[in-house]
Amino acid sequence: xxxxxxxxxxxxxxxxGAGFLITGRRxxxxxxxxxxxGTAAVTVSFPHARELGELSASVVAHGGWAGDVADPGDxxxxxxxxxxxxxxxxxxxxxxxxxxxxxxxxxxxxxxxYDEGTLAEYQAVSGQLIAGEWLxxxxxxxxxxxxxxxxxxxxxTLPDGRVAGMVTAALDAPAVRKGRMLPLDVMARYWPELGxxxxxxxxxxxxxxxxxxxxxxxxxxxxxxxxGAGRGCDPNRLYVDAVGGFGPxxxxxxFPSLWAAAAYVQWEVPDPEAVxxxxxxxxxxxxxxxxxxxxxxPSxPSxPSxPSxxxxxxxxxxxxxxxxxxxIEHSGAGPDQVTVEVSAYRDGQRRPVGxxxxxxxxxxxxxxxxxxxxxAQLAPDxxxxxxxxxxxxxLNEAVAHWECGAEDSTPLGCAYPLVVTDRARHHxxxxxxxxxxxxxxxxxxxxxxxxxRVECGTAERxxxxxxxxxxxxxxxxxxxxxxxxxxxxxxxxxxxxVPVLLWSRSGCPRATHTDPHCPGHAEPPCPGSAFLDQLAxxxxxxxxxxxxxxxxxxxxxxxxxDDPDLHWARDLQLLWDNPRCFPETPASLHSPVA
Length: 594
Description:
Elements (H helix, E strand, L loop, with lengths): L6 E6 L2 E7 L4 E4 L12 E4 L9 E8 L13 E5 L24 E5 L8 E7 L10 E5 L15 E3 L5 E9 L6 E6 H7 L14 H15 L15 H9 L14 H11 L5 H15 L24 H8 E10 L6 E10 L2 E11 L3 H14 L6 E8 L12 E3 L2 E4 H4 L2 E5 H4 L2 H17 L5 E4 L7 H10 L4 E4 L7 H9 L4 E5 L22 H13 L7 H14 L11 E5 L18
Parallel strand pairs: 13-16, 16-19, 20-21, 21-22
Antiparallel strand pairs: 1-2, 1-4, 2-3, 3-6, 4-5, 5-6, 7-8, 7-10, 8-9, 9-12, 10-11, 11-12, 13-14, 14-15, 17-18, 22-23
Helix pairs in contact: 2-4, 2-5, 3-4, 3-5, 6-10, 11-12
């Protein structure tokens, strides 16, 4: 029975599930089993080693699961309060569960009434993944224990005891016992460190172990979310070196970390020498890179010093924003029907607050009710940033003027730093990747940027504007006209990686849709040009990372003016797009087993 001692029972509040020990102190389970860990204690027990009792545990890694049954990333790693003297689980190659003839898979779960556990026998239907994520399971027999609440997080093991995946859900199907599991290679997408434990066909075990030892050395922290950038190791460059000119191309958006790049080479690149080449090149870089600076010796307290050149103040600011996101999209149910989803980001994870399909006229009231709930989800010391992710034709919507609620007439834009972004741009892998690089440059500069002006009724052709924004490495584009009066030029601004776009929602009143050329460009001055003049002066010394806070102060000043409608910043709209504030998470959809 010692070979099965690694099976674990997980309890978190009223939730009970399963898990399996993978090192002396770490346990894998489903993220939904420990979804309440923010407010409830997580305890782990081992039914084959009852003498250990219940051990407390904490969630140390999370796959980004967003809350519903069809959401990817339903993986969590728990760290026990102490090491346990039990042999951890062993792993099969990732294709072992779906190589014909499909083998029996055994799951050890803890449904109601079975605190000691019980077994269920299933097998894969096919090697075809459902939505690129799950293997579908069917019962080995038409009778016996079905997969029900309490099996989530259970290891799906081969008859010889090796782990081939993890049970995540049961499917409601009359007279058919079905379920789903995450295979090992999919689990490693969300926790790349798993790759060190799983044998990979075609890749030598010694090369794999060497690679992961080098990854820990490169990142210092040993964590898979540490990008390792401080050691000069570019994950995208290493990937290209490892696969060569005829290997799979770099995935859209590149890799956020060395661990992610290494996992992709291990699981997705068929060349058996790719892992070895990646490890060899990484070792060369580490051997030639300068050692990281030693921490300064303790000294007497003194006044705070200026931020170092390697970590600009602006970089610290940009990563500190805690977004509350209001995402609006067309529902497909009619031109007036939209889907609205409100969520909050905390600890790098998105926490859904509410979602619904509404007529356009009901959106404002719905958002007013939900934003307060979302802000309450943020950490107590977080700097909230309300972000509206809008369809392109909604970009000029006066969301900053929406009232906070039925009993609070404060405009949202005077209560929070508030920005908008274009929904298509927000979800574009190409632009997210390019914008990350642009923000790194902006943060390293740590100062204000030039306003690239797009004048009212400009004769500049959109392709010429595109070239100007690219050649000028633009960080901020200012428009004298709103999107409705300069569609072609706004399309360029949205599809080029310019992190910040600013405009006046009302724009120049002298320009029209039929004739966008303002007749007053010479005398008197065009109101749109006057807006850009004021804008350039106002933001000249403001780092782009600080613009949401600066625009909040301008909105407060405009609202407090004797005649708010005459203040130049009255209708200021800020499109501010920093992908680093929004870790990539899937859209939410239902609730798993458990």
